[in-house]
Amino acid sequence: MNGQELCKRLLTMAIVLLGVSLLTYGLIFITPGDPARTILTQQMGGQIPSQEAVEQFRAENGLDDPFLVQYAHWMGDVLQGDLGHSYYNDRSVSEMIIQRLPNTIVLAVASIFVALVIAIPAGIASARNPGSQADYAAQIGSLIGVSMPNFWLGYLLIIVCSLRLNLFPVAGAAGLEHLILPSLTLGSGMAAVIARLVRTAMLDVLDDAYIQAARAKGLRERIIIYKHALRNALVPVVTIIGLQLSYVLNGAVVIEVVFQRPGLGTLLVDAIFARDYPVVQGVTLLIGVIFVLMNFAVDLTYSRLDPRIDLGGDPT
């Protein structure tokens, strides 16, 4: 990647993040309701605050200013590394995110691991024996995985594995046993998508001339599959894994609520219900940054797997 291409990508990333922040701030601004009155009511244990207290809260937090003024103040603080403070408990938003982020990262990594462990062997087995019972079973399993809502699967696993069989805890994030059901719930849908893609990519690669030449030379089928065919078949798979990060992050919001994991998902949902706008803006901006960086990482990995691909978009 040359300097000009790097500058273009950095500029694109900045524009995307600016658009995400502006859209999020705008949606929050036009949301019906008074955050000052809501926050004060919660802080006072359900009692209705006085009008003077509401007006003072608005003035202290700049809620009386026009939209562009509020956004400019917030963006100026963000550029200085300050995401603001929670309306509800006056804690630093950055501190709250740092406290919750590890749990979400662990869940995301575990879910991707579960998806790959399921999807790659299933896709390879399906592609090696097209039309077989294993192929039909893999395709049916993929269809069920894509169609099944992850929150429904989560509740089903809780009922069967936690309440009836008492194998795993229902909620929390204290240890590995608390991670199994959430990662399986979140990873199953992603596994279905990746398995179908692996099957399609492997079928295309196994028909290539170099695979036939390797077989003619007498190489063992295992070496042909895992050393030669799989590497080229993984090129589109890497792309979909990067794009599936959006599924992981969106699904984490739901799954963390279902399993009551203290991560970014529960932090965002709690902040939305509490009208804690600085927390909502900070978490949303972080998710946008993760999306942009992951897409960039996918491009780099893509070109490493297939050197013929130019990052500028033109194949050599």
TrEMBL record:
PROSITE patterns recorded: ABC_TM1 (PS50928)
CDD domains: TM_PBP2
Membrane topology, as annotated: Multi-pass membrane protein
Keyword annotations of the record: Cell membrane, Ion transport, Membrane, Nickel, Transmembrane, Transmembrane helix, Transport
Keyword Ion transport: yes
Transmembrane stretches, start-end: 12-30, 105-124, 136-159, 233-259, 279-298
Entry keyword Membrane: yes
Gene3D superfamilies: MetI-like
Stored InterPro entries: BPD_transp_1_N, MetI-like, MetI-like_sf, Opp2B
Pfam families assigned: BPD_transp_1 (PF00528), BPD_transp_1_N (PF19300)
SUPFAM superfamilies referenced in this protein's UniProt entry, alphabetically: MetI-like (SSF161098)
Compartment(s) of residence: Cell membrane
Domain ABC transmembrane type-1: 101-302
Family: Belongs to the binding-protein-dependent transport system permease family. OppBC subfamily.
Protein's name in the database: ABC transporter permease
